[in-house]
Structure prediction request, 462 residues.
Amino acid sequence: MLLTLRVQGTRHCLPACANGFRFLASSAAPEKSEKVPPAPAQSQLEVNGSTYATDGWTNVTPKILSYLGANKHLQTDHPLSIIRQRIVNYFYGAYRNQRGNPLFSVYDKLNPVVTVQQNFDNLLIPADHVSRQKSDCYYVNEQHLLRAHTTAHQVELISGGLDNFLVVGEVYRRDEIDSTHYPVFHQADAVRLVTKDKLFERNPGLELFEETWSGQLADPKLILPSSKFMDQTKQPCHTLEAVKLMEHEMKHVLVGLTKDLFGPRIKYRWVDTYFPFTQPSWELEIYFKDNWLEVLGCGIMRHEILQKAGVHQSIGYAFGVGLERLAMVLFDIPDIRLFWSNDSGFLSQFSEKDLHNLPKYKPISHYPQCTNDLSFWLPENVEVDAGFSPNDFYDLVRSLAGDMVEQISLVDKFKHPKTGRTSLCFRIVYRHMERTLTQAEVNEVHKHIASASVDSFNVQIR
Prediction:
C-alpha cells in the first residue's frame, strides 16, 4: 500500500514503496488533470479472461498484458517469493489468536484488473490528482485499469468482513527506464483493524472516538485536493489516546519486520509524510550503504475508508512495501530486469529451503553495452508533458525492444529560437541480460524505434 507522494524524477504519487529506489527525493508538484481524448470506434480487449470495451483512455500495450499471470512472487525459489514468504511468516508469528493460529490471512492471487473506484475513489484520492493521469497508469478503459497499488483491494476485503490481512501481487506503473524501474513490480500491503475492547483492553474507560464526533461520513466535496492541509496529529473523529496506542503497535511491529529482514542492528528512522488514505502517515527509512533508504510507508487508516466498507466501530493501520526494493538490497541484485529472467544461472542461485540464508547475487556474465542516441523534433506547438509524455516513448521502446533496453535518459533538450520547435535527444543503452548483443541487431531495433516514433508521435527524426 502506501506509496509515496514524493518520488524520484518525474514520478508523482501513489501508495506504498515504488519499485525504484528513492534516496530522499524532493516533492513533485501536482499538475492539472488532463482532458479525456475523444473515444475511438468501439473495439474490445480481452484481459485476464474478461472482455472490456476500449475507449479513448485505453493505453495498455500487448507487452504489458504479457506480464499478467507470471506471478513471480509465487514462483518457487524466486527471490521475490522468498521475500514474500519472509513477510508473511513474520506476520503469522507477530499476531496469533488464543488458539495459537495466525490472525492474518493472505491474498496473493487477486485479479490485477480493478476499477477506477477501487484504485482511486475508495482511497480518497481526489479526482484531479496527478496519479490518475494516463501518463502514470495503464488503463484498460476509462473505468478499468491495471492496479497501480495493491491497496486497491482494501475496501472490498474489509467489506467482506476481514480485519487482519495481507495482499501481495504485481502492480503496474508507467515509468522511466533504468536499473531500478520496471513497468511491473510487486507489493505487499497489510491492514489491521481493532475495536475499542481490543485496543483498550487494559483501559476500558478510554474511547476510540471523540464525544463531539457525529459519526457521519464526511462530505466527499470536502476532501481537500492536497493532503498537506490535513492535520497530521490525528483525524477529527479519533481520540488522541486511540491514535497514539495504534501508532505504537504499528511502529513496533514494522520495526520488528525491518530487523527481521535486515538484522537487529539496522539503523532506522521514522519520517512524517502525507498519503490520501492514511492520517497521520509515516515512512520508515534504514541507513544502508551510507544513504537513508525508504523501505515502506504506513499510517492510521482514514476513517472514511472504513465507513465506505461498512466498518464504523474500529480503528486501523495499514502499510505497504515494494518486494523488488527489498530483494535488490538483501540479495545485492543490481538490475530490476533480472527478476523477469528465466536464465537458470540466475534462478539457481536462490532457494527456499532456508529462508533466512539469503545469498548474494553473483553475476552470470558481464555482457557489453551498446549505446545509441535518438534525436527528433516534436511537432509544432507540442512540448514535453504538454502534448508529449516521455512515458509514452518509454512504452513504445519497451514494446519494440523489450528487456534489451537497460536504460533511457534524456540527454539533450532545446527549443529552436526561430521555429519555436522543441528538440529532444534520448540516449538508449542496450544490454541483454543473458547474451551478447551485436551492434548490427541493435541498430536494426533502433531503426524500428525511430520509425515507430514518427508514426506514433508525428516527430521528425534529426
In short: Residues 240-262 form the longest helix (23 residues). The chain is about 25% helix and 25% strand. Residues 217 and 304 are 6 Å apart (CA to CA). Residues 1-41 have pLDDT under 50 and may be disordered.
